[in-house]
Structure formats: structure tokens, C-alpha cells
Amino acid sequence: MKHATLRQLKVFESVARNLSYTRAAEELHLTQPTVSIQLKQLTDIVGFPLLEQIGKRIFLTELGKELLKVARATFDNFSRFEMLVSDIKGVKAGKLRVTVITTAKYFVPRLLGSFYKRYPGIEVFLTVTNRERVLQRLANNEDDLYILGQPPEHMDVHAEMFLENPLVVVAACDHPLAGQTGIPIGRIAEEPFLMREQGSGTRLSAQRFFGDRGMQLKIRMELGSNEAIKLAVAGGLGIAVISAHTLALERNSEELSILDVEGFPIRRQWYLAYPAGKQLTVVSSAFRDFLKEESRAVANRYLAGIPGFLPVMSNTDLPE
Amino acid sequence: MKHATLRQLKVFESVARNLSYTRAAEELHLTQPTVSIQLKQLTDIVGFPLLEQIGKRIFLTELGKELLKVARATFDNFSRFEMLVSDIKGVKAGKLRVTVITTAKYFVPRLLGSFYKRYPGIEVFLTVTNRERVLQRLANNEDDLYILGQPPEHMDVHAEMFLENPLVVVAACDHPLAGQTGIPIGRIAEEPFLMREQGSGTRLSAQRFFGDRGMQLKIRMELGSNEAIKLAVAGGLGIAVISAHTLALERNSEELSILDVEGFPIRRQWYLAYPAGKQLTVVSSAFRDFLKEESRAVANRYLAGIPGFLPVMSNTDLPE
DNA sequence: GTAAACGATAGATATTTATCTATGATATAT
DNA sequence: ATATATCATAGATAAATATCTATCGTTTAC
Asked: At what angle do helices B282-298 and B108-118 cross, to 10 degrees?
């Protein structure tokens, strides 16, 4: 049976439907002998007659009926698959699996949301996890795209920057430094700091920033989440360095204030990454384009107005 | 997609399962380049990658997973079909459609019953109808086999005799002729006869029998069924010529008696028929053999003991 | 850094295949 | 009885297919 060809099945289906070799030949734009031969081959492979001729009329044998079912099921499967292919081509179907580093959760869901709205046929899966797990998933090719704060080294990865990720100093609104301009770095370094645990990219960047200037931060507390840090800062327990995106929702609240510190914001970027050899799916590719396009607007909307921050990207879209 | 080959699907399935071209090549007893090429062709046909290679590892793309489903479904269908073929070959599956003329209903069901018991996997369909419909179904190739009392002429049919069908004269047990031996035909012809309607094969035979001898029967009543005739005969309304098989169940009853009339029983036969060009299915062929074999036993069991009847068939099986 | 493993590619070849035209056999219709 | 329609078969041919060996470029592992 594995020696049968789809061609034979196709011809058989036509003959079975028309109950005529000649008619089938016409339908398939073949000569009648060609149909005869294809059918003979198929019959030889099966070992039993599929058709019988009584007088001039042609009938399907029991086996013929069964094979017809098989043939039709097969062609149905194929055409369903072909439809899927063309849907995927038109981004009307497909899956998008994105894994992002924890800090990115403040703006990625919003973007995925609008992306999904533009392509309602697709399925979106978002995983939010720490850097280590992101890199692990990247290495295991578990997702389509990855978003993180610094591109992995020692790994063959294609990474591209798509959005600024400025780190700012925040304090409670009633903090003495709130509202001041051009605060010297040395002044800030004296304040008690609230920090994420060791290994946090933000913490690393902040410590390097002060370290490079010969200062060491006084860390009062380590907290497990950005939310906790913001609450603690608002509660007056200290000041903190956090990603401006983290403030997206609180920007206009009365509780936190971004301090205008010399040298701040620390410039960091968001990167979109995927394994070097990987050919992006149509959906992934569409999301990549979408991400570049949208992130500019996001940058202008949410990052403008940060003291000392100047977007590098072209400002065709200005904030309202 | 119609240009894909089953070979390509087979190779793809193996690669997808092993996630390795080399392993797949080993499994299929091919060289690795062959696998590469087959897969490349399939990928070109689909138009999108089915597999992706990240570093040294191979992954299925979303489309690859879908195609794998299609491939597996296809092969499953084929192997199910192959199982059906081999079941049919071993008469463990299949259908048997038999159409018989009304009179044959007295012994065919019994035979079909034992046939079914021997081959429990098959499905049996029995149609009982009049001669006209039998011939019609034969012409339309609606069934596998046909049983009738005289082979059709003016029709390209293969027919073979398989059983004697003696026509006997029956009377009520208390009829004056009951028990007498060597009753002259002339004596019988005086009796009032009960007959099936015009067109009945039995009636035709009986009338021809007496006509050939220059006699004409006195027909008292026409009745629509053999059962009605038997009841009427038992009730003393007259005598009748009927097939001995019709008496199969009543043979030992006290109501009817077979008369020992000169020249009786009229010899008729049962024929098995099917369209000339038709190649019998395995099941049909098995039933044909079964029929020949069993009908001898039936003949001996039910037809022996009919006054004046001498089976033509060899009597290796003697009646108990 | 070197070796081993893996997949891609090139080039060659024998086989199979798909197809045609021409013709023959058979059955139905006129 | 003849013509027509239908399917089977034979013979020919161009195309494709399936496969191999040999070799190359990468990636991983030691």
C-alpha cells in the first residue's frame, strides 16, 4: 500500500465518482488509457478489484468503497492543511510564543494586546520569567521571540534593540529631594536605597553606575518585586533606581516622584532576541515589525517627560 | 500539495519522530543525503519550513507539527485499509448480499445461518422477492449472488445448479388418495387444484407437466402464498403441486400428505446466479463453495423419502 | 584546538512514471 | 447488422524520481 501514489488515488477518486474511465480522463485532462493504467496499478497494489464492470456499467466493489473513503479523507486532510498554510501566509492563523524578562511585563502585554487585535486569528502565548529562565528557554528554542534587557553573550543569538529602558531614581513625593533639579550624584549616594535581589539587571546597572563614579550605595532593604519597592519608596523607607516603564501606571499618581539626578536616567534598552539560525515564522515576523513600529509611540508617550531623558529615536510621532 | 508524494511524507514522519536526519536515514535504510533531499522537496512544496535547526538540534515548526498530524492520519487510514484487505482475504470481514426468489426462503435462511456461524466476521444481507425483481436486481448488479428456480435467458448470466427442487402433489392426510401408491396421473387431474397466481414458476411447471400429457387441471382457487395453499389443502379444499422444500417444516406433521403420483415429483432445480462478467468477492466465493457442499446434505436430509424421488447427486452423505 | 557528528550540496545513474498514439475487444443502441 | 461508445492493451518516449557516493561547512564535545 505504501507503493500506491497519490496520483493513483486521485485518478481512482475521479473514476469512482464518475463511474466512467472516459469521463474521469476528461476531468483530469488525460487520455483514457492513462486512466486505465493508473487504475490497474492501484488495483494490483491492493490485490483485489476496486471496480467491476457489469456489461457497460461500472460499479465500486466493497473494497472500492472503502478505498474511496480513504482517498477522500486523505485529500480532505491535505486541503485542510493547505488552507492552514495559506492562512499562516496571510497571518490569519498561527501561534506566537513570547517569553519576556520580568521587568518587561509592564509594557509587553499592552503591545501583545494590540497585536492580537490587529490579527485576531492568531494565538498568543506570553511567558514572564527571570533572566536565567529566559536564556534557558532561548537555548532550548521553546518560544518564537524573547524580550530582555541585555542581549545574551556566549550564545549565538540574533538580538536587536527596539526600545529605550531608562532607569530613574524615584523617591516619595514628600521626600526632601523631590522637585529639586540637577541633584548631584554624591547627594543621592548618601540616601538609603531599596533594591531588588542580587542578579537583577536593574540593580546591576545601578551599582555599576555608582561604582564607576567611585561611590557605593547604602542598601537599606532588598525587596522581591518592583511593586514592593514602589510601595516601600512611597512609604518613605528610602529611594530606588527602577525602570521608567515600571512607573507607567503610577506616573501621574501623587505618591512617587522621579528625581532629577545628574547623569540620570541611566540608559538601558530593551532587546528582541531569537536563536541565530532561526527563520522567523510569519507571525513572529509580523510581531517583530509591529514591535518596532509601536515601541516608538510607546517611547514617546511614556518616556518623554522624564527629567534628563532624550529619546534617540526619530520623533515623527510626538506625544499628545 | 498534490505534488507531494507519500514517500516524502514517510521520510518526513521519520525525521519528525527521530528529530534527526541521520537517524531517519538509518531507520529507512537510506543514506542521509536522500533524506535531506526528500525533505527539501516536501518543504519546497509546502512553501514554509517544516523543521528548523537551532545549533545542532532539530525542532518541528508549527506547520511541521500540523503536517505530521496529516501524515500520521494518512498512514493510519492506509494501514486500516490494509487490515481490511487482509481480513477480507481471510474471510474475516466483508459483506454478502444474496437475493433469492420467494420459494427459496424455505431453505436459504438456514444455510445463510450456518455460513454466518462459520465466518462470524462477515455481514449477511438477504433479500427475498419475486422473480421479476430478482432479475432486475441481477441486471443492476445490486447483490453478490442470486438464487432462483430457472436461470434467466436473454441475459449474460453465469448460473449453476446446486440443489434439486422436486415439485410434489400434496393432499390432506384424510384425503382418499393419501397413502395410495402409483396413483395414475389421470386420476389426479380430476381433483380440484389450488394454485399460486399466474407467473409462479411452480404453477408454470405443473401446468406444463399436465399439458404435455394432454390434460388440463381444474383450478379451484388461486392463493397468494404457499402458506395459504398448505392451509387450504390441509382444510380439504383441494390438492396442490408445491415445492418439496416448502414442506420442510411440515413434513412430519399430521396434516399434509405427499401423494405418490406417476411421473412425480417433477424435477426442478435451484440455481445460483451472478452477472457473467462479475468476479466474485472472497466472501461470495466462500458462500458458493459452502452452498454446494451443504446443499448435498440438505438434499439428503429433506428430499430423501419423497415418493418417486431419486437424487442425482452422489450420496456420500446418507440421511440419518 | 582537534576530532567527531551532523546536515547540505553536487554530480551521476538506473529506474520508474506518466503519458501519449494506435489498435483491439466488447457491449449497447439503432 | 451496423455504428457507436467504452475500456483494455501494446509500444514508445520524455520526464521525474529515488538513490547513491563524495565532499563541504557547522556545531558540539573533548
From this structure: 120
Element of type H or E holding A196: strand A192-196
pLDDT at A123 over 90: no
Among A61, A74, A88, the residue with its CB nearest the CB of B63 is: A88
What lies within 8 Å, CB to CB, of A92 at 6+ separation is A119, A121, A122
Express as a percent the part of chain B with pLDDT over 90. Answer: 21
pLDDT digits (tens, 9 = 90+) for A31-56: 889 999 989 888 888 888 888 887 77
The answer to whether A47 contacts B89, with C-beta atoms less than 8 Å apart, is yes
CA dihedral A281, A283, A284, A289 (to 10 degrees): 130
Neighbours of B307 (CB within 10 A): 15
Task: Calculate the alpha carbon distances from A101 to A126, A202, A272, B25 in Å.
Answer: 11, 12, 11, 40
DSSP characters over A71-113 = HHHHHHHHHHHHHHHHHHHTTSS-EEEEEEEGGGGGTHHHHHH
Rounded distance, CA B79 to CA B74, Å?
Answer: 9
Neighbours of B91 (CB within 10 A): 18
Strand D lies under 7 A from the Cβ of residue B267: no
Nearest to A85 by CA among B178, B72, B197, B70: B70
d(CA A278, CA A144): 9
Chain A 260-289 contacts with nucleic strand D (CB below 7 A): 276-277
Grid cell 513572529 in the structure block, residue: A284
Tell me the torsion sign for CA atoms B289, B291, B294, B300. negative
**What is the rounded radius of gyration, in angstroms, for the C-alpha atoms of chain B?**
32
Contact yes or no for A1 and B84 at CB 8 A: no
The Cα B309–Cα B266 span in angstroms is 9
| Cα–Cα distance, B226 to B246 (Å, whole number) | 7
Cβ of A32 near strand D (under 7 Å)? The reply is yes
- Could you give the CA distance from residue B129 to residue B104 in angstroms, rounded to a whole number? 10
Round to a whole number and report the distance in Å from the CA of A27 to the C1' of C24: 25
> Where residue A253 falls among pLDDT bands split at 50, 70, 90?
low
Q: Identify the residue whose cell numbers are 439428503.
A: B300
Q: Is A261 strand, coil or helix?
A: strand
Is there a contact between A66 and B81 if contact means CB atoms under 8 Å apart? yes
Q: Is A279 in CB contact (< 8 Å) with chain B?
A: yes
Other CB atoms within a 10 A radius of the CB of residue B89 amount to: 13
Closest residue of A to B89, CA-based?
Answer: A48
Which residue lies nearest C16, CA-to-C1' measured? A3
What does the block give as the cell for A81? 492543511
pLDDT at A249: 62
Nearest alpha carbon to residue B36 among B61, B12, B4, B68: B12
Q: Which nucleotides of D are covered by protein (CB under 7 A)?
A: 5-11, 17-23, 27-28
Edge-first strand order for the sheet with A192-196 is A218-223, A192-196, A239-243, A167-172, A256-259
Query: DSSP alpha helices (H): ranges in B148-270?
Result: 185-189, 201-212, 226-234
In 3-state terms, what secondary structure has residue B290? helix
Residue type, B204: L
Question: Coil, strand, or helix at residue B225?
Answer: coil
pTM check: above 0.90: no
Instruction: Give, in degrees to the nearest 5, the angle at Cα B57 between B56 and B62.
Output: 140
